[in-house]
Amino acid sequence: MTGQTYSIHICDDWISISLPGWDMILAAQSALSTDGHWTEIVPGIDSIAAQFDPALLSPAEAVRIASERMERLAPMASESPSAVKIPVCYDLAFAPDREFVAGKIGIDADILPAWHAARTQRVAMLGFMPGFAYLQSIEECDTIGRLATPRQSVAAGSIGIIGRQSCIYSFDSPGGWPIIGRTPLRLFDPARTKPALLSAGATVCFEPISKDMFDNWETEAEE
Prior knowledge:
Layout: E1 7-11, E2 14-18, H1 22-33, E3 38-43, E4 47-52, H2 59-71, E5 84-89, H3 98-105, H4 112-117, E6 121-126, E7 133-137, E8 151-154, E9 158-162, E10 165-168, E11 173-175, E12 179-182, E13 203-209, H5 211-222
Parallel strand pairs: 5-13
Antiparallel strand pairs: 1-2, 2-4, 3-4, 6-7, 6-13, 7-10, 8-11, 9-10, 9-12
């Protein structure tokens, strides 16, 4: 990995490799997936984790093999053949923090839906709960922080934003992200062939919809 830096940490039967950027994480995922030493590989926002079988590899051997792969690593362009379109209703009924977020970035609340939908988003990782998507934008926005008091319940489909990251709640749950909208899509459905709607590396396009469209979407989904 000429000119690049990485670090490897180990915990029980997992190694975690910190890497400088998503392109390197994609490259690491590809490299580790081909050598047969890992039982599970999980890409994250700024690192990748890999699990090994202690009956086949010692921790020292796992670190050595991972280090060899990283030394030969070259950046890999992220490929997303088509963006996943996520309809979002930014109506105040689904966006309790729209005014708060708009104030933090210095725009009118009515402009926030267009501002958010125009941001290039990529799924950095899934976590917290099945199908819960963490997305990253290339645009920095450090003025948006977590809520001072987390909510005890956030509805499934809610869109949160903190800094350059957005998230989509896959189930009703507590949460501390400022909420600016909601999608009628189900992020996780165990009955589907591919239960999670999104996967790491996918490009996401948010498409603003009206509350009537949201209600109709939900009604059709229930029929």
